[in-house]
Amino acid sequence: MTQLLAWVAVGMATAFIILVAWIVVSRFLADRRRRRERLLRPTIETAIAEYLAAEEPEQPRLPATKAARDLLRMVALETMSELSGRERGRLVALLERLGIVAETAARLGSRRRRVRRFAAEALRQIGSDEAERSLSVGLEDLDLDTSLTCAAALAELSDEALVPPILALADRAAVDRPGAVAAILVTLGRSHPSTIGDALDPGVSLELRRLAAAVAGELRLAEHVPLLREALHGEDDELVARAARGLGAIGDVGEIELLLRLAEAEDRSWFVRLAATDALGAIGDPRAIEPLERELNSDGWLLQAKAARALRMLGSGGEEALRRALGSPATTVRDQARVALER
Predict the structure, then answer these.
(1) Residue 153 and residue 132: Cα distance in Å, rounded?
(2) Which domain holds residue 79?
(3) 125, 142, 159 - which closes a domain
(4) CB hemisphere CA count around 203 (13 angstroms)
(5) d(CA 21, CA 16)
């Protein structure tokens, strides 16, 4: 037993020594890398500035070491974020001639996820044709964050030919990465509005349809009203609520009757009733006044607030309903009506 404890103590001491040695070596290498960067950065920044400012620039002469090339890429990406037009195109062309873009694309094949993610983000910033070709391959990366970064870049850069694989990836990732998928859909909705219809199709996942419904409404994509109307008739409360908000934002009057029923539907989730109430106010149909007045006098602070705001948007008829609510025996109803009238 004593011998076993001795061996354990020796093992722990050895592990401690190895850990200390690793920390010391890591700090030494990090300090050396920072010193090298401080020495090289001014040279590289000056070379890039002179290259961009020259009328007929010559390729700058820079140190050929790996560290210098890595730093050149870093400085170029930092500079690129503040450039546009001719200067940006010139810097991208320089990176391609120097092989920096090709080297970055090659890192998409690294075994380390962190390296692949950095490469995908760098190629997204560069945005050249060469970068786009590499990013399309990165859509198949097993690391979800890397593939989504590639998809986000391609949504900004590519034509509609790559939209199907982008949407296929978005469909697979909608549950685990809804924020990233929503950002991709917003980009596609702005550059290729028709593609949001594919994400609203009943054949895709429910999660993707929910996100697409929200994007269609946020971007006021009136061409997708038929699909939003179809979603409004669905059973999923979250999808119905987002479709209602979308139709309200667009101003579609084709489903007023259903929105009126949803605003008072006791068998639907409270947020469906709120979304329908909001949509009725946004659309501005006077038929919404009576049910909204009932909602204002119902229980539930949130529903009262939404109903009061919607009534305020319905002109003189809505204002009359709000004035009637000032005489309500319920304090919250009176407060909501007063706030709405003061806006």
Answers:
(1) 8
(2) 68-142
(3) 142
(4) 4
(5) 9
For residues 198-211, give the mean pLDDT. Answer: 95
pLDDT of the residue at 39: 62
Residues belonging to the chain: 343
Q: Which amino acid is at 57?
A: P
Report residue 82: phi and psi, to 5°: -110, 5
Contact 209, 200 (CB under 8 A): yes
List the alpha helices (DSSP H) in 54-112. 66-80, 85-97, 100-106
Query: What is the per-residue pLDDT for 29?
Result: 54
Q: pLDDT tens across 138-190, in order?
A: 888 989 999 999 999 899 886 778 899 999 999 999 999 999 999 999 999 99
Alpha-carbon torsion, ordered 175, 173, 111, 149, to 10 deg = -120
For residues 8 and 16, what is the distance between their CA atoms, to the nearest angstrom?
A: 12
Of all residues in the chain, the percent with pLDDT exceeding 70 is: 89
Structure tokens at 227: 């699909």
Tokens found for residue 211: 């996100």
CA separation for the pair 89, 62 (Å, rounded): 20
Residue 126: per-residue pLDDT: 87
pTM: 0.75
Is 54 within the bounds of a domain?
no
**Is 147 within the bounds of a domain?**
no
- CATH number of domain containing 337: 1.25.10.10
**What sign has the CA pseudo-torsion 67, 68, 71, 76?**
negative
**Measured between alpha carbons, how far apart are the two ends of the chain, in Å?**
81
Alpha carbon distance 212, 343 (integer Å) = 32
Count the Cβ atoms, other than its own, within 10 Å of residue 144: 15
| Cβ 189 vs Cβ 217: under 8 Å | no
| Angle, helices 178-191/144-157, rounded to nearest 10 degrees | 10
pLDDT tens digits along 124-138: 888 888 888 888 888
Q: How many domains does the chain have?
A: 2
Answer yes or no: is 267 within a domain. yes
Does residue 208 lie within any of the structural domains? no
Which of residues 126, 142, 158 is at a domain's end? 142
